[in-house]
Design brief:
By secondary structure, the chain is mostly helical. The chain is built from nine helices and no strands. Helix 2 runs antiparallel to helix 9, helix 4 runs antiparallel to helix 6 and helix 4 packs across helix 8.
């Protein structure tokens, strides 16, 4: 994983911008509720002013990013334990399968953060791009040169998680998951599981006995390494999102003040 960011130096700036934004989100909702045409049983989106739509849609993107970051943290929670092992093993899920599944989730969540950042840039900076056309190339092309800091943020995030974004692409489009260490440990598990399922008993030699003894330690070491990687990913992604949101909400505030 390449690159990193420092914590936002001035937390007071972030707190001030975030408070202003959230207060305006609440005010936008309150204005709709006071409208005589407000209907609790239906969508009231049409009652929003264009400025309130801009604000609440901005909040929606922030919520998505927060949710994705929370999902990254949940991957650590899930991998830390192998719950209800009898049930999982009975249904063909061993510890390697369990770890692999959640690592695939991690790759997808980290990659999706970049996707949502691009969408949010297009919205906040009002680039008039449809979600389908919010490629990095299009977003960069439509942004004024004076707003290149947000592009650098996207670039740096992509560089930091380049390997995982590539892994997500391979997993999504080619059903590939590359982890040679997990594959090596998992091979013994899968052979043993299939043999047990088919009622095959292998003669127990010295190597197989060593494999059985080493297996719990290998799984523990694998899980420990994955947990450290996930924690590191979370911290880096959290820093990027904080910087990104400070930049995006500062732009929202500038445009909100002009249109207010």
């Amino acid at each position: 994983m390449k690159g990193s960011t420092r914590q936002i130096d001035n937390e007071a700036i972030w707190a001030e911008v975030a408070e202003k934004f959230l207060n305006e989100c609440k005010a936008a909702v309150d204005r709709v509720k006071r409208d005589p045409k407000f209907d609790r049983t239906d969508s009231n989106y049409h009652l929003l002013s264009m400025l309130d739509r801009y604000t609440l849609e901005t909040q929606n993107y922030w919520s998505r990013l927060s949710g994705l970051l929370s999902d990254v943290q949940k991957v650590e929670v899930m991998i830390r334990r192998f719950p209800d092992s009898k049930y999982l093993l009975k249904n063909g899920v061993d510890q390697i399968d369990y770890i692999k599944y959640h690592m695939e989730v991690l790759y997808h969540k980290l990659s999706s953060i970049l996707d949502v950042m691009r969408l949010m840039v297009a919205h906040v900076y009002q680039l008039n791009l449809s979600p389908e056309n919010c490629s990095y190339k299009n977003v960069k092309k439509h942004l004024p040169e004076t707003d290149n800091f947000v592009i650098r943020l996207l670039d740096n995030y992509n560089d930091s998680f380049e390997n995982m974004i590539k892994a997500r692409h391979l997993n999504t489009h080619r059903a590939l998951y590359k982890d040679s260490r997990a594959d090596e440990i998992g091979l013994f598990l899968k052979i043993s599981r299939e043999a047990q399922r088919l009622g095959i008993k292998f003669p127990e030699d010295r190597n197989s006995r060593i494999e059985k003894v080493l297996l719990p330690y290998q799984l523990k070491a694998l899980r420990k390494d994955k947990l450290k990687m996930i924690r590191d990913c979370y911290k880096v992604a959290e820093n990027y999102i904080e910087y990104f949101m400070l930049t995006a909400l500062s732009e929202w505030q500038k445009r909100w003040m002009i249109r207010k």
